[in-house]
Amino acid sequence: MTDTFFGVPIHGDITRGSSRVEQKPIEELAPLFQAVIDDPTIVEFGWTQYTPYFNDGDTCEFSVHGLWVKTTAEQKLEEEGTEEFEHWDLETEYGHPSLGEVKGEWRGEWPNREYVELGYVGPDRARYDRVQALDSALQGASFENALLDKFGDHAMVTVRKDGIEVEYYSHD
Fold first, then answer.
1. From the CB of residue 69, how many other CB atoms can be counted at a distance below 10 Å?
2. Hey, which end of the chain has fewer CB within 10 Å, N or C?
């Protein structure tokens, strides 16, 4: 069967564009988002989203980056003046200071190397898992169209219980 465009047959070799991840309805993100915003120990969280200006010759495509979380523990340290809060990314080498981390290690040699989880270290595994689930959903590309439509390109999104702030995000 010949493909058509508004009833006109299409012939020739078609080079398909980006193989983007299939998009999900934004409603599927809602329970993950709500679980984090409803957590009484989470003061704020956010992420950046942007299209890179240059990507070493690869196509520059919009994506979401690095969920960060600020809890009441970090807020207390900040208020006491013992530490100034900077976004606590979930991907830090030493884990999140109040959410904890899952320890693990790579075992074996390539190509049969595998990651083995050694256990969770921190105060609340369920909270950690809820935050990780939201991070995976945001960075998994399945909601990019909805996030781009809602918050725009080159944006830093900060979520608090009383509202969401969107600021221009400058990146390299």
1. 26
2. N
User: Tokens 């240059």 label which residue?
Assistant: 54
Helices (H) and strands (E) in the chain, counts: 4, 8
Q: Which residue has the tokens 């950046």?
A: 48
pLDDT level of residue 8 (50, 70, 90 thresholds)? confident
* Total residue length of the chain: 172
Whether the CB-CB separation of 118 and 40 falls below 8 Å is answered with no
| Segments making up each domain of the chain, as ranges | 22-92+125-168
pTM of the predicted model as reported, rounded to 2 decimal places? 0.81
Give the angle subtended at the CA of 35 by the CAs of 39 and 31, to the nearest 5°: 165
Beta carbons of 21 and 142 less than 8 angstroms apart: yes
DSSP H or E segment with residue 129: helix 125-139
CA distance 28 to 76: 33
The 10s digit of each residue's pLDDT in 26-84 is 999 999 999 999 999 999 999 999 998 876 777 788 899 989 999 998 888 888 877 66
* Token reading at 142: 């399945």
Q: Is the dihedral of CA 68, 74, 80, 83 positive or negative?
A: negative
Question: How confident is the model at residue 126, as a pLDDT?
Answer: 95
